[in-house]
Specification:
Number of strands: 4
CATH topology: Alpha-Beta Plaits
Mean pLDDT: 95
CATH class: Alpha Beta
CATH architecture: 2-Layer Sandwich
Distance between the termini: 17 Å
Strand order of the largest sheet: 2-3-1-4
Shape: globular
Amino acid sequence: MTTILINGMSCQHCVASVKKALRKIPGMSNVVVNLEKGVASYDGDVNGEAVKEAIKKIGFEVSE
């Protein structure tokens, strides 16, 4: 499982938005977003840049 840090999430609507965006990426599975920790975890052989771009596109930032 791959985990990424996300800045800017403040509510359950944010969590739902991130989940929806990540689930649209081909090959993505088992998406879990934790608001309190500010992380998203997922399985799949997915391009990391595609993940970052999907998150940025909906208004959040990915921490390196």
